[in-house]
Design goal:
Layout (H helix, E strand, L loop, with lengths): L1 H35 L8 H6 L5 E4 L2 H4 L4 H8 L3 E3 L7 H12 L6 E5 L9 H5 L15 H4 L6 H4 L11 H9 L29 E2 L9 H16 L3 E6 L5 E2 L4 H12 L4 E3 L12 E3 L2 E2 L1 H18 L3
Helix pairs in contact: 1-9, 4-12, 5-10
């Protein structure tokens, strides 16, 4: 019996050893090919985490990357600018990217675009942290943020294959169709113009929905930490909530909270959700995103705010 147990344990340990070797070998191979080719036009994460050096950085979600014209900001402020907004990723992602940037250099100006309901709990806020998994090994400064994805995330990340589980097809595509401009800003410096105009009958849109929700503590902490990092590094920070087409009958909880925290920390805060000059269909691709016409008008206001505050 003892002999059989020894054989079983020996085989079990051998299998464990082979699984670990396989995981390490395949994981390192995936890591190599993931970072060998990443088209910055579709995903600026590697560029921002490892390469960007612009003086002005824009952080936020799709409402950032579609609505802040980087080259216009650079031209009018005489400061280099990159739009680091990524669709579908909010304050947790923005805070992680800021921490990566601050490991390398200190920008002069940071603009943080937040959603009107930025602090409302949504599981998507945590699930979408998967975009950061490939950076877990090389960027220890964001491991705590990545760990928020799930209760067992740090355990899963003992595997070197796990960070690339959802990127297999992407990795193959990137390496079959390489981009000669990878790891460099594109001609728009991260800004992605939306060319269409909303096709919705009527001229006025009122949203009567209102929910007095309790803010998500982790999202709130990330917002506070983002502000404190900028203050401690003497970065001029602006917090903006860009325009929306519909009019809400009640102020969203997140707007009130974000405004109060910014005011407490003497951070310029601009809420454009109720600005009537933007409440025209000609400026919007859909209810929550400005098209190129609206982006030009809004970027003019952003530039005015930066120039009024940055050099005091």
């Amino acid at each position: 019996m003892n002999g059989k147990i020894k054989v079983f344990l020996g085989r079990f340990l051998l299998v464990c050893f082979l699984v670990i070797v396989f995981d390490q070998a395949v994981g390192r191979l995936l890591n190599h090919f993931y970072f060998k080719h990443e088209p910055v036009n579709h995903n600026s994460t590697t560029y921002v985490a490892n390469y960007c050096d612009q003086q002005v950085l824009i952080f936020g979600s799709s409402r950032a990357c579609y609505q802040y014209i980087s080259n216009e900001i650079a031209d009018k402020t005489k400061l280099t600018c990159f739009n680091a907004g990524v669709p579908g990723n909010y304050i947790l992602y923005s805070y992680a990217m800021l921490k990566c940037v601050l490991k390398r250099y200190t920008p002069k100006v940071v603009v943080l675009d937040i959603m009107p309901d930025e602090f409302k709990f949504s599981q998507d806020n945590y699930d979408r942290l998967s975009i950061l998994l490939p950076y877990y090994e090389s960027h220890p400064e964001i491991r705590e943020i990545i760990g928020l994805k799930s209760k067992y995330e740090n355990l899963k990340l003992l595997s070197m294959i796990y960070p690339f589980n959802s990127f297999a097809i992407d990795i193959i595509s990137r390496n079959l169709h390489t981009n000669k401009n990878e790891f460099r800003p594109d001609g728009q410096n991260g800004f992605i113009p939306l060319l269409d105009t909303i096709n919705q009958p009527g001229d006025k849109f009122v949203n009567k929905d209102y929910e007095n929700y309790k803010p998500d503590a982790e999202l709130l902490m990330a917002y506070n930490s983002f502000i404190k990092e900028c203050i401690s590094h003497h970065i001029k920070l602006f917090v903006f909530i860009s325009p929306i087409l519909d009019t809400h009958l009640f102020k969203n909880n997140s707007i009130k909270i974000a405004s109060n925290i910014a005011l407490k920390n003497k951070i310029p805060f601009l809420d454009c959700t109720d600005q009537q000059e933007f409440k025209k269909k000609i400026f919007f691709k859909d209810f929550g995103h400005l098209n190129i016409n609206g982006a030009r008008l809004y970027t003019t206001e952003v530039i005015r705010q930066i120039k009024a505050q940055s050099y005091r």
